[in-house]
Amino acid sequence: MAAASSPSPAPAKKQKKWLRGNNKLIHRYLGEARAALAAAAQDTEDGDDAAAAALGLVSLALEMSPRAEAALELRARALLALRRYRDVADMLRDYIPSCGKSCSGDDATTSSSSCSSGSSGSGDLAAASRVELLSPDRDRSDAGAGAARFLCFDVSELKRRLVAGFSRNSNTEAQWRYLVLGQACFHLGLMEDAVVLLQTGRRLASAAFRRESVCWSEDSFSPSNTTSDVVSVTGNRRTSKSGSASVAPASEAESVSQLLAHVKLLLRRRAAAVAALDAGLPAEAVRHFNKVLDTRRSVLPHPFATACLVGRAAAFRSAGRPADAIADCNRALALDPAFIPALRARADLLESVGALPDCLRDLDHLKLLYDAALRDGKLPGPSWRPQGGIRFGEIAGAHRTLTARIQQLRGRVAAGEGCSVDYYALLGVARGCTRSELERAHLLLTLKLKPDRSVSFAERVELVDEHRDLESVRDQARMSALFLYRMLQKGYSFIMSAVLDEEAAARQRAKDAAALAASVPKQEDEAAKAEATAPVIPMPRTVVTAATTAATPMSMSPRLFCRDMAVVGSLLSRGGFDRAIPVKCEAMSC
């Protein structure tokens, strides 16, 4: 019985031989995948094909060994080379810092429903472990404390984490994870997460280099090959219009340093713009946002560009430029039609200028997004996708407020307020403006917001959503710009007609004043002619004294007047009022 129960040595030898064969095959696949990635980094034309071939080889290796660390690293780098950043983020989701915070907050609001299934328990356990993701000893955390903290958890998830913690070195595994995920987070618009991850990856790489350099002699001292052998292939395969490559690919350490400096510069400029807007300096905020959006150094990821466009729209609105603000909201929605802050901002702007039907259209779209979020139990898009600071817990209250607002606006439209657009506010001119002021404002807005020119921003933006291509973004941006352009033309015609009516009324008033002014001299000439043709009646010469003058009332001689003013002046100078003054008095008819 003992001999029958003991395992035979033949199957054990076959199993060892099978494992050795699989290991050799896995090493061969991984070697070919590394060669394909190196070729993809150097070739700018057929780089995607080489990266796809490397991804296929890595997939074959992972089928034989799903937990092979080298295969996981090559798979992440192949996805990064293929610009599949969302797949990289989904693969390394537990390492995204903001994802841990947002997911933990959402799990806290829906804890009653999450504990009913085993999968939700694994999500809670993952959320608890994301608190210390950036520590080197992440996988060595106590699983018993996590199980005691939560009432429902997945045993398979806990087992997987324990086995992974005992079988792998967390310092060496986290190094490539942070570097690769940091680059993917930059392209996904998660700038703060990219800074944290890249800095952590550089710190771990420096620590590994110091540990390795201890046993090196002075003659064999050289930079670590762990961070410089693999060539970065993100952003270096961009070619110029002539078809030649722009720059030669740099090592991963250099590319990470350059990317980190660029991300910090963008974050500093955005922080300066937000601070200027909070301080009440909208012109300064617009200047800083322009530096971010009009950068020529490299392309911007479209989630980050969308958030900056909404921020610049808020600055334009504070500066009294609603047309420019609406144009920025149109660009943001062309990049991301489900971006909730952009829909809110454009609806508020359209309501402020009196375009109530268009405002209702945006509010209805926003209500559909709220309904979808309440139905799915999460915000639109993946959980790590930024939504401008909006959290799922705010959706229910915002939905009730939005429903009441839609009903109020529909009542105003039914009352006839839908056609009363404030074109003066839209064009940024004052009521009673002159024709020159109106033409200048209209010319500036037309040159900036021309439909053909409004789509040029898409060339400086990197699209990371596989469901939207550049042509669809351009088409939607052109349609939105055409709608705004027609509104501006209608407003220009409306205000110009009012200006022309005011100018015609001013010309009529001037004509009436000129006619009235011309009639007054004609009456004076007629009076002078009548005075000149009147007959002269001679009067006898008399001597007038002061006493007789005082005693004679004015009614007795109303037609007398003095013709010799020199005599009167000399009399007054001498003070002799009692002397007789010989004067000539004549009667005259008026």
From TrEMBL:
SUPFAM superfamilies the record matches: Chaperone J-domain (SSF46565), TPR-like (SSF48452)
Amino acid composition bias (Polar residues), ranges on this chain: 219-237
Domain J: from-to ranges: 422-493
Region ranges (Disordered): 102-123, 218-247
InterPro entries: DnaJ_domain (IPR001623), J_dom_sf (IPR036869), TPR-like_helical_dom_sf (IPR011990), TPR_rpt (IPR019734)
GO CC annotation: endoplasmic reticulum
Superkingdom of origin organism: Eukaryota
Identification of the protein by name: J domain-containing protein
